[in-house]
Amino acid sequence: MNVYRKEYRLHNADTDFYRRLRWDTMFTMFQEASIAHTEALGAGREKTLDRGFLWVIALQQVTIRRLPEYDERITVESWPGRTMHVFFPRYYRMRDEAGEILVEGSALWGLMDRQSRKLIFPEEEGIEVPETVTGDEPPLPRTFKNVPAQRQVPFTVPFSYLDLNGHMNNTRYFDLVQDLLPPEQMEKAPTRIAVEYSGEAKWGEQLSVGVAKTESGWFLLGESDHRVFRMQVEYGEPQTSKE
After folding, report:
1. Contact (Cβ atoms closer than 8 angstroms) between residue 224 and residue 207
2. Does a structural domain hold residue 33?
3. 125 by DSSP, 3-state: which?
4. Is residue 113 within 8 Å of 52, Cβ to Cβ?
5. Cα(72)–Cα(63) distance, rounded to whole angstroms?
6. Is 173 inside any structural domain?
7. For the chain, first and last CA: distance in Å?
8. H or E segment at 61?
9. Are 217 and 190 in contact (CB under 8 A)?
10. Regarding predicted confidence, which is higher, 202 or 237?
11. Whole-prediction pTM value?
12. How many independent structural domains does the chain possess?
C-alpha cells in the first residue's frame, strides 16, 4: 500500500492564539504531502513544471475531530485516488502520537497550462499518478450552492499571498477568511471546512468577499469580474484541550 507519511512536531509558527494548529498550516502540510508523494510516484517537475504545467487545486475539504496543539507530535498521511479525466483525487489523514485520527479529508488536483491557464488532460501529456486503495478513503469534495451575503468586504491581493503559479496560493484563503470571522468565533475550532477554487486571484486584484452566517457556521464567496472561491466553515461543540 503506497501511502505517504511525514511526522511533525508543532512549533510556535504552526499554531494560533489558542495554541491550535493554524488552518493555513494544516492545508500547507497536506499540499506539501501531495507534491512530495506525486514526485516520488514519477510525476515530478521534469514532467510538469519544467514543461509549463502547474499543479492547482479545484476542490478540497476536511472533517476535523480535534486540531492538534502546540508542541504536539503528529503524522500526516496522503495517497492518490484514480485519475478522473482532468482531476487527480488526493486523500489525507492527520494522526496524533497514539495513531488516533484528528483530521481527514480529500482534494481534487489538476494540471494547468501556464500559458493558456486551462486544465490539461494528463494522459495526453504522458502524466500518470498510480492509484492507491486503502479501502476507507474519505469522501471526495463536491461543489456547493451560494448563500446570500449579509455583508460585503473588499480585499486586494498582496504580493505576499502569491505563489510560483503567479496567483494567490490556496492556503492564503484561510488567512483571509479567518480575518473576516468575528473574534468570538475563533474561540471555537471548526468541524468541517470545504473550499471550491473557481478562478485565479492575481497580484493587486480587487475582490469583493461576501460573508453569510449559516445554521452550521459560515459561507464566504470571493469575486472580482469572475468567481474566485467559495468556502463553507462549519462548527460543532467547542473544542477542548488534549490534556
Report:
1. yes
2. yes
3. helix
4. yes
5. 19
6. yes
7. 33
8. strand 53-64
9. yes
10. 202
11. 0.93
12. 1
CATH for 89: 3.10.129.10
Rounded to the nearest 10 degrees, what angle do helices 172-180 and 23-40 cross at?
Answer: 170
- Give residue 242's pLDDT band: very low, low, confident or very high (50, 70, 90): low
Closest to 138 in 3D by CA, of 30, 54, 221 = 30
**Type of residue at 126:** G
pLDDT in tens, 41-100: 999 999 999 999 999 999 999 999 999 999 999 999 999 999 999 999 999 999 999 999
Quick check: 103 and 63 in contact, CB under 8 A? Answer: yes
Identify residue 114 by its one-letter amino acid code.
Answer: R
Q: Which residue has the cell 489523514?
A: 93
Cα distance between residue 110 and residue 86, in whole Å:
6
Pairing type for strands 101-113 and 53-64 reads antiparallel
Q: Is 242 part of a structural domain of the chain?
A: no
Give me the residues paired with residue 111 across strands: 55
DSSP letters of 156-184? Answer: E--GGGB-TTSSB-TTHHHHHHHHHS-GG
* The 4-9 sheet, strands edge to edge: 4-9, 73-80, 88-96, 101-113, 53-64, 190-197, 227-235, 217-223, 206-213, 151-156
User: Strands 73-80, 151-156: parallel, antiparallel or unpaired by DSSP?
Assistant: unpaired
Q: Above 90 in pLDDT, residue 239?
A: no
**DSSP type of residue 84:** B
Measured CA to CA, the distance from residue 93 to residue 104 in angstroms comes to: 4
Domain of 111 in residue numbering reads as: 4-235
Cβ atoms 162, 194 nearer than 8 A:
no
Domain-located, residue 240: no
Is the model's pLDDT at 237 over the cut of 90? Answer: no
